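Today's session is about reading a structure prediction critically. Students often jump straight to the picture, but the first step is always the sequence itself: look for stretches that repeat, for charged clusters, for runs of hydrophobic residues. Only then move on to the predicted structure, which in these notes is written as discrete structure tokens rather than atom positions. Here is the chain we will use throughout the hour.
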Amino acid sequence: MIREGDLVYLFHDYRRSFLRSAGKRRLHTDQGFIDLQELIGRSYGETVYTNLGKPFSLLRPSLHEKIMLIKRKTQILYPKDIGMILMKAQIYPGAKVIESGAGSGALTTALANFVRPRGKVYSYERNEIFLKNARANIEKNGLAEWVEFKHREVIDEYEEKDADFVMIDIGSPWELIEPARKALKGGAVLATICPTFEQLSRTVFTLKENEFTNIESMEIFLRKILVRPGKTRPEQRMPSHTGWIVFATKTIPSSPPAEKPE
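Below is the predicted structure for this chain, in token form.
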């Protein structure tokens, strides 16, 4: 049963879909309005109708909907990029994760979802407006318990140590590679996203200078298929370039073995 405060994904079509909490408010659309109080006591999967008789399905929101329908103050990382980050970053329940640049909280939402119930995401953001919006999005998605926001700019080092993963999402990611190295466990992964080739090159060269290994740079595309009788084809519009993702792994330097005398 849907309870007061539960998130519900109200779906009419892909242009008219909304993420709302069940409670004492109305959802106004071009198809009419829905009293969100009437959602309480219903089950996910049921259909409700607007005052104009238009149907909306009551769906349990997936992580994808929670990310794509957050309130945005910045450009967000899309699920196509977040999925690869989660796979490469070795995120697990109980992981300690550091994020530089909370933005609107899209990646924060995904990270918090996968470190719970014993892990923590430490999210640094210097812009107070962005931070407040990201915190509100995390609270709406029910993940505040696993995120600690920090309104500060990192210069030399992070407060946390022995981190399992560090994500850098700022305009000059190379500036935080040395602090990230200090914070990471040996063998742990760092990731960043670079919008331009110049940022990408400088970031990769800085990673090499700081003795990271297994450095990979990639771009991820996603294209949906429009399925219609007799004229199925790829959709013309797609989220293409959002940035180049860079992954690297921290190594612990060691001296080579001494040469044996002949």
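Discussion point for the tutorial: The chain has two domains: 7-61, 65-250.
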